[in-house]
Known about the structure:
- The protein has 141 residues and is α+β, with helices and mostly antiparallel strands.
- The protein has one domain: K homology (KH) domain (GMP Synthetase, Chain A, domain 3, 2-Layer Sandwich), CATH 3.30.300.20.
- It is 52% helix and 16% strand.
- A 3-stranded mixed β-sheet has the order 1-2-3, with helices on one face.
- Helix 1 packs across helix 4 (92-102).
- The longest helix is centred in the C-terminal third of the chain and has 22 residues, at 118-139.
Amino acid sequence: MSEMSPRLQRVADQIQRELATLIQQEVNDPRIGMVSVTGVNVSRDIAHAKVYVTVLNTMTDDQNINSSTLSEPGDLDELEIKENIKALNKAAGYLRSLLAKRLSIRSVPKLQFHYDGSIRRGQQLSSLIDSALAADRDLHS
């Protein structure tokens, strides 16, 4: 994959900032929880944008629902992630129309949302490193 030009990078950064605000303030779909926009890749012709998001754990007021949907506080179900991505992709047209009002570019790209699992992988690697360090400390103590 080629590197983005400075102009495309600026457009992607502006889309990322605006979407982070719009998703939280304007989208009223109950399937969308706490979502963080982690990155945007814009095609060269600015016709398409891949929006990468992470889904943060959302707890409801009902403890029965929380205990049945989450294995541990902080763990996300794959179903919850898929529902969030599906809802965001369904709202993509609406978000695109809101972006058109906020951005000063001729054409606003079509949005496609994807789950960014890099944070989860980073946490897993960090816990593996911590456990290896603890095992090494125990071995040399």
